[in-house]
């Protein structure tokens, strides 16, 4: 039988921490019941139990996207077997598996994912459902690696959707609104090594005038800034080819490891020595064994069409001093376009501007208004899993397939069994 539990948590893919909050601790889930099904039959029992339900991954989102007033279903206990199909170059994973569990299994058998987010701690299904991404001009969002999903609907029936099926492109970045992903099939490739190196002293003028020159020659590039100085703080390069250059467009290579957050412990950061190592140990910024980033923080992120990136960055520099009191650091990354309806990279190559804030919700919200006033008219789309203030009409305007998604939702979940207050706000009616 399904066990209702008062509190649960997730660390390294196992239930070890007792908490009913998200990872950052800024959201206390309002669920009346918590469930941790251990089989698809148990999951079906919860889903068809007559109450609103919501799937929960590894709890790393910063807003109430995963919350519910009904039953919050942890996916951590669902069947998590990992099956590699070498002929198809695909891996099949259960709906609660984290990248931190998946990556070593792939690596041990000679396989890799094309890209990862800054941390491996997150669940694949949760990352995919929110359009999570890494960086790289040639790298799409993590959702674009999905070749198929099994989705349990409100009737408890599992539908399999594969790339090319009519509902596929609408369902992968599904915000948890279309059902519970019980299995994903991901594209894989033969394992590869990368090096990582960090540079300091790059003038802002180079970033604004030569952004393409910074990003086009390396597999993954992250620029860190507090918007305060004439230079950005750090540029992180990750590449499969060659070796780290001594100098990068006026920036010099750091001789010591650097954390992107001031005074944070560099032990938590992946290798920056320039030595080549397996993809899973270089693509994320943070090591699995450590707390990623600061922990006590909020995050926001806006993905702007690459064509207007310069204007967006200039606007943010102007706003820089107004964020000073609440900003820990900002990160600029590039992501290639995909065709998934609610992906923030839908239809256009984008530049993502991420903000790590202090954990001060009111102060953060007050700086988000001017940021969104500047960026949304340029076509910026907020990261679904982070803090934003944009309302339904603004979001609808920035997604050409918004109405199609709303119709898909009405078709697969007409009673809004998977609905919650967050969805009511952004997808009313
Ligand atoms: C320190 C830190 C660093 C981060 N770095 C990045 C980064 O580099 N790039 C980036 O893009 N984002 C980043 N994020 C954001 C993070 O990737 C997203 O919030 C992501 O959704 C987290 O996955 P999760 O499993 O924790 O999802 P949760 O927060 O648990 O859930 C998110 C959504 O997914 C849904 N969901 C979860 N599991 C399922 C399922 N099985 N079926 C259907 N829906 C499901 C939930 O209902 C909810 O709507 C970072 C977050 C943190 C805390």
Explain the overall architecture.
This protein has 429 residues and is of the alpha+beta class. It has 2 domains: 82-191, Uridine Diphospho-n-acetylenolpyruvylglucosamine Reductase, domain 3, CATH 3.30.465; 193-388, Alpha-Beta Plaits. It is 22% helix and 23% strand. The protein has 10 helices and 20 strands. The strands form 4 sheets. Strands 11, 12, 13, 14, 15, 16, 17, 18, 19 and 20 form a 10-stranded antiparallel sheet that branches. Flavin-adenine dinucleotide is lined by residues 23, 54-61, 65-66, 75, 95, 117-119, 122-123, 125-127, 129-130, 132-133, 175-176, 180-181, 292-293, 299, 383, 385. This is FAD-binding protein. Residues 27-191 form the FAD-binding PCMH-type domain. Keywords: Oxidoreductase.
Keywords, please?
disordered N terminus, 22% helix, 429 residues, 23% strand, FAD-binding protein, ten-stranded antiparallel beta sheet, L-gulono-1,4-lactone dehydrogenase activity, FAD binding, alpha+beta, binds flavin-adenine dinucleotide, Alpha-Beta Plaits, Uridine Diphospho-n-acetylenolpyruvylglucosamine Reductase, domain 3, FAD-bd_PCMH_sub2, oxidoreductase
Can you count the helices? Answer: 10
The CATH topology name of the largest domain reads: Alpha-Beta Plaits
Report the major sheet. 10 strands, antiparallel
| Protein structure class | alpha+beta
Ligands present: flavin-adenine dinucleotide
Distance between the termini: 35 Å
Order of helices and strands: EHEEEEHEHEEHEEEHEEEEEEHEEHEHHH
Mean pLDDT: 94
Proportion of residues in helical segments: 10-25%
Number of domains: 2
Radius of gyration: 21 Å
At the first level of CATH, the class of the largest domain is Alpha Beta
How big a fraction of the residues is strand?
15-25%
CATH architecture of the largest domain: 2-Layer Sandwich
How many β-strand stretches? 20
Organism: Leekyejoonella antrihumi
Domain FAD-binding PCMH-type: 27-191
GO molecular function, one term: L-gulono-1,4-lactone dehydrogenase activity
Keywords: Oxidoreductase
């Amino acid at each position: 039988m399904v066990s209702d539990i008062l509190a649960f948590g997730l660390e390294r893919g196992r239930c070890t921490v007792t908490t009913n909050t998200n990872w950052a601790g800024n959201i206390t889930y309002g669920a009346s019941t918590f469930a941790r099904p251990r089989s698809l039959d148990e999951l079906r029992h919860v889903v068809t139990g007559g109450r609103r339900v919501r799937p929960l991954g590894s709890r790393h989102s910063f807003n109430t996207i995963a919350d519910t007033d009904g039953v919050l279903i942890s996916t951590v206990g669902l069947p998590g077997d990992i099956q590699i199909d070498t002929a198809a170059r695909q891996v099949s994973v259960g709906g609660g598996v984290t990248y931190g569990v998946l990556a070593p299994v792939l690596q041990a058998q000679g396989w890799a994912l094309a890209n990862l987010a800054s941390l491996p701690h997150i669940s694949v299904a949760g990352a995919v459902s929110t359009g999570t991404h890494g960086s790289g001009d040639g790298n799409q969002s993590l959702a674009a690696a999905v070749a198929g999903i099994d989705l349990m609907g409100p009737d408890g029936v599992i539908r399999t959707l594969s790339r090319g099926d009519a509902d596929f492109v609408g369902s992968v970045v599904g915000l948890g609104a279309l059902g519970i992903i019980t299995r994903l099939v991901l594209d894989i490739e033969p394992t590869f090594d990368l090096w990582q190196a960090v540079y300091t002293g790059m003038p802002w003028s180079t970033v604004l005038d030569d952004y393409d020159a910074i990003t086009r020659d390396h597999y993954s590039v992250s620029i860190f800034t507090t918007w305060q100085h004439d230079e950005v703080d750090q540029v992180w390069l990750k590449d499969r080819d060659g070796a780290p250059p001594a100098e990068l467009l006026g920036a010099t290579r750091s001789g010591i490891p650097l954390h992107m957050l001031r005074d944070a412990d560099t032990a938590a950061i992946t290798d920056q020595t320039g030595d080549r190592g397996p993809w899973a140990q270089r693509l994320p910024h943070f090591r699995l064994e450590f707390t990623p980033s600061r922990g006590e923080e909020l995050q926001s992120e806006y993905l702007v069409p690459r064509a207007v990136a310069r204007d967006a960055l200039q606007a943010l520099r102007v706003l820089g001093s107004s964020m000073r009191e609440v900003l820990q650091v900002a990160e600029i990354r590039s992501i290639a376009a995909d065709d998934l309806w609610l992906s923030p990279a839908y239809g256009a190559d984008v530049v993502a501007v991420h903000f790590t804030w202090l954990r001060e919700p009111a102060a953060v919200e007050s700086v988000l208004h001017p940021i969104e006033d500047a960026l949304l008219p340029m076509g910026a789309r907020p990261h679904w899993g982070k803090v934003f203030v944009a309302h339904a009409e603004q979001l609808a305007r920035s997604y050409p397939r918004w109405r199609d998604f709303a119709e898909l939702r009405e078709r697969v979940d007409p009673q809004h069994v998977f609905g919650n207050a967050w969805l009511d706000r952004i997808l009313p009616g």
